[in-house]
Write a structure and sequence with these properties.
- The structure is a single chain.
- The protein has 3 helices and 7 strands, in the order βαβαβββββα.
- The chain has about 150 residues and is of the alpha+beta class.
- The chain has one domain: 4-Layer Sandwich (Deoxyribonuclease I, Chain A), CATH 3.60.10.
Length: about 150
Amino acid sequence: MYEDSDVIGIGCWAALPDAMKIIAWSCQGLVYPWTVRSLNELIWLHNPALVFLSETKCKKHKCDIVKQRFNMFGVNVDSKGKERGLILLWLKDVNVILHSFLESHINAGIANADGILGWRFTGIYGHPKANQRGDTWRLLRTLRGASIHL
């Protein structure tokens, strides 16, 4: 028999998802030793399953070093000079299905152990200039409409 706590919405019966810790941080540059130390402390304290960093200001080589240091898998979007840059890191037991990753976003699905898509993760780097923020909103609307498949 189902308990009231098993009901999600009206007439929708589903297993409640397991909790997952996520860190999302505009780190202002993985090129700085103090940033990497701070990230190390955050990961040690919170033991997240996913870590999304924006403003990494670094290229693939540095991001690969960070992945190895924290024993995580991941994908990165290179910086443009000393601006921007994104990275999504995850633990080996997290089933991440990458859908798209470009200059200003990483879009992925997170599946359970059975391979059933549970939810979507989208990390965005929004335009800092007010006159370009419309581009960020258009991207969000586009990503909302994009389905993620296994």
